[in-house]
Amino acid sequence: MPLVVAASPEIVEPIRAAADAKVAAGAGVDGRCLEVTVQAAEPVEIAAAIATKHATTLTGVGQGSGATVLPDVWVPDSSTWLQRLEQAAPGFQPLNGASVATSPVVVAMPEPLAKTMVGWPEKKLQWSELLGQMTSSDSPLKTGIVDPARDASGLAGLLALGQASAGNGNDAARVGVLRTLALNRSNLRADLMAKFPKSEDPAALANGVGLAALSEEDVIAYNATQPPVSLAALYVEPAAVALDYPFAVMPEADAAKNNAADLLFGELASSPAYRDSLAKAGLRSSDGTAGGGFAAPTGAPSPEAIAASAPASGGGAANGLDAAAIGRALASWTAITSPGRMLVVFDVSGSMLGTVPTAAGKTRNQVMVEAAGRGLGLLDNEWWLGVWVFSTELQGSRDYRELVPIGQLSKQKDALQASLGEVQPVEGGATGLYDTVLASYLAVQEGYQADKVNSVVLFTDGQNEDANSISREELVAQLKEKSDAKRPVRVILVGIGNEVNKEELETIAEAGGGGAFVAQDPAKIDEIFLQAIASRAATVG
């Protein structure tokens, strides 16, 4: 049986040549000649198939097609794929993971614009400066991006811009950047490349994509076609997360496959011929230096500077990647690009008056409402939103009360903002969780919109305390009975603090086709709320 390797298309030929050289040299495993098959595969396709195998999904990726055969070794373009999978599917634990090539992520701009707008190639650009260019109301630049949920270079650009806006402490700038990027997003890298201007005519430059985060290899490959307008590669500082091409041996590989993978990796790690074939493909070696024949773009930093920012061997966390940061960035992106229909339900029981030591003494309610306000501020005008509060007997015998009915955000933005001020804990109020979950589920299902993800996002810091409500078993049974494949509704439960029963929340959320998140430290509710927003986008009916 041959060792099957699936690799990003741009690195397939160098890996295939290295494998052929190893086979020709007579390498073998356990007395058998080495056999290697190297196939081109888009990283998103393999990632979707792995996620599906582990009964999960990646944000913005969806289910695998079922036709994708998983390899023994996977060489995606970035360790971010491995981190996202390991986060979503803890059972996915590939071996090795060391980098076998690298390509810095750059900002690609048509050369005429790069010269006139940013002083390329002499001037060095900061991400904060780029942020200003993108959010300026009079900027002539049309910004493009490959969907960062499906493309590693797009994700690297999103992370870099997110860090720049966070450094400015400017939430408005962060939201503005996301919305600007969303206007000209592409699902495929080839589609984005086709949007660059085909002429230096001012109108063509104005109407085409003026900047986009891509890999250095993308720019080299594009310019090699001798287009009418070449691209400049801007090495923006601080350096974005580079594409690092990890050599990931799949967990299912047996001992013979592992030994064969070790032989192939040894060739990739030490062969001068492989290093030179990378260079001809527009890629650098894993340490950031380049082999013979590498056509570095104009203005590229010195090999030493590239090497200094290259990924450490082993990729992942060693590459400075942060799974939490990736999750936050993609959750924010999802909130902007995938409008939904959501009912947000806030717990206003008396326990929400408890203070949060890690939030300068603010109450749980204050922390929750502030986080929700920031999260709702991300949402596009195409969203539909409503707000409820719940405790016990808030409206006669009902445990819940509507503050704003579900409606289009553009038509009730002021009402929604004002409603957050009405989210006030009721002293002595208990937690009427079960009746509220069922009522909110049915309310969202009743007004179901097929072109949107329909969901309930409910915040609570406790367990059900209403002796007159339905039981947990009855709630679970009702949710399952009322579920409708033609009108799917996701129930997302967000637990706050250490008094929630995580098992209870997970049981209810599973019955409601959703998920449960627990922020044991309420001060971190922002992160959890973003995860909840991303979670609700997993399925569209």
General description of the model:
- The protein is α/β, with parallel strands linked by helices.
- It is 40% helix and 18% strand.
- It contains 20 helices and 18 strands.
- It has helices at 12-24, 43-53, 79-88, 111-118, 127-135, 152-167, 171-183, 189-193, 202-207, 216-224, 255-270, 272-280, 303-308, 323-337, 364-376, 409-420, 433-446, 472-482, 502-511, 525-535; strands spanning 3-7, 28-29, 32-33, 36-40, 73-75, 95-99, 105-110, 143-146, 185-186, 211-215, 231-234, 246-249, 340-347, 384-395, 398-408, 453-460, 489-496, 515-519.
- It has a six-stranded mixed β-sheet, sandwiched between helices. A five-stranded mixed β-sheet has the order 4-1-5-12-6.
- This is VWFA domain-containing protein.
- It comes from Catenuloplanes nepalensis.
- InterPro entries: VWF_A (IPR002035), vWFA_dom_sf (IPR036465).
